Amino acid sequence: MLRLSNISNNSWRLIQCRPILQQSKQNVATEHGSQQMPETTTTLRKRPTQLTDEIIRVDHAGELGADRIYAGQMAVLGNGPMGKTIAHMWEQEKEHRRKFEKLIQEHRVRPTVMVPIWNVAGFMLGAGTALLGEKAAMACTVAVETVIVEHYNEQLRQIMASPKPDKELLDTITKFRDEEQEHHDTGIDCGAEQAPFYKAITEVIKIGCKTAIAISKRI
Fold first, then answer.
1. Is 93 labeled as ligand-binding?
2. Residue 96 labeled ligand binder
């Protein structure tokens, strides 16, 4: 643990760091200028349980992928009639991603090694379906959000069944689950089911999402 001592001398100020349990009386001299300790905003917690570790790693990967999917849709459809709708959903996904990035740091969870791949794959999926038209993009949204909502519901059951449920994680996932359900409903309202080959598109995307979840749990 370090103690910060502020020393004033005319027009300049030095910040000197030294251990609290210092056995010698040797002073640390600092030349002209000032030193500042880097600000830390992350509070480290105890190592998480295996369940919490897995949930944070997988959900971080999932929200990263969702963020990139909407980024791809915005790149293609951002200036069109669906632009504001997609932008609204994307902003919520950005917040989801930021929250799990924060939890990863606080709990010292190892992210999946697949992060770079999910980053690229998510953008390509979003942009690729958007190139097929607005309804196809919404079909993609419906498929992805269907899997995410089911996944979050399963995690909520696991957390509530654990000996010491993590209330913060429970509240976070509940909130995000509700927002993902809203995205799903928005996709339906915006004509997702009218997309060409709707069932085929959504089934393929669902399989891809479930596969990504299974992989992220393990590596």
1. yes
2. yes
